[in-house]
């Protein structure tokens, strides 16, 4: 069983910062890409940022220059540093990872989500 557990969400004022963490645990053979998505009320889930096992990153235009994704492969953990937060960043943030469990093959896994609320 593979699990992704997120932490670090909360309430912050506009212009503030938060750091999200997501740790993968369980039967893990290897992890390919990891990423963060978000879903605001009434909107579709969208990609925020992603990072490959080699460290190549991709950011949504809306967060470029403000958010930074990173990972610690030794800890099977991905981070999202969010600076200069805006009210429009308010959403539930989900961690996603492409994981090989060593038996069933590659699977697409999601965390339970963590709420980020930015007040104006």
Q: Helical element count?
A: 0
Strand-pairing-aware structural class: mainly beta
Radius of gyration: 14 Å
Mean pLDDT: 97
Kindly estimate the percentage of residues that lie in beta strands according to DSSP: over 45%
Number of strands: 11
- Note poorly predicted spans: none
Q: In this structure, how is the largest beta sheet organized? A: 7 strands, mixed
Distance between the termini: 40 Å
Specify the helix fraction band: under 10%
Gross morphology is elongated
H/E topology pattern: EEEEEEEEEEE
Please give a handful of descriptors for the protein shown.
120 residues, mainly beta, 4-stranded antiparallel beta sheet, 59% strand
Question: Could you describe the 3D structure shown?
Answer:
- A hairpin with a 5-residue loop joins strand 9 (91-100) and strand 10 (106-110).
- By secondary structure, the chain is mainly β.
- It contains no helices and 11 strands.
- Strands 2, 4, 5, 6, 9, 10 and 11 form a 7-stranded mixed beta sheet that branches. Strands 1-3-8-7 form a 4-stranded antiparallel beta sheet, with no helix packed on it.
- It has strands at 2-7, 10-13, 18-26, 30-39, 46-51, 57-59, 67-72, 77-82, 91-100, 106-110, 114-119.
- The protein is 0% helix and 59% strand.
